[in-house]
């Protein structure tokens, strides 16, 4: 799920940037500070979309920069447990599928692909169901449910496809057959 947050902050404009467009400089400085930040409450901050900056700043003695009040919008990705997502299989390994669900990849362990027993086939680079012979390979579209979100040093998302209406999404050609 994507969210927009509106924030207020004080931005330090360094003296070497004084001749430039204030709004453009503020947007660059805010993006450098906030983009890619992972926060448990806000999620993964993707970008700063806009900024409204007060053109009148103030100076702190001993510092040649100006400080301006600014209001800006952050775009963040916040995965929610039990949310159903669609994505493209980015990588297939012997332990499961890495599914691109937007700005991050989620992991579907091979035990969570379906009710069948799925094994990795190194010859085709796909996961193959033992009974159904269903093949899931890199580039396939899948529908999954978020079951775990971890905010450790790395942002990890666990997915499952073991419920009705989840799993590989058939293409138009497959449906016609």
UniProtKB/TrEMBL annotation:
Its EC number is 2.7.7.6. The keyword Manganese does not apply. Residues 82-162 form the S1 motif domain. One of its GO terms (biological process) is DNA-templated transcription initiation. Keywords: Cytoplasm, DNA-directed RNA polymerase, Nucleotidyltransferase, Transcription, Transferase. Its main location: cytoplasm. Gene3D superfamilies: Nucleic acid-binding proteins, RNA polymerase Rpb7-like, N-terminal domain. SMART domains: S1 (SM00316). Forms 2 domains with an elongated structure; Rpo4 packs into the hinge region between the 2 domains. DNA-dependent RNA polymerase (RNAP) catalyzes the transcription of DNA into RNA using the four ribonucleoside triphosphates as substrates. This is DNA-directed RNA polymerase subunit Rpo7. It comes from Ignicoccus pacificus DSM 13166. The lineage of its organism: Archaea, Thermoproteota, Thermoprotei, Desulfurococcales, Desulfurococcaceae.
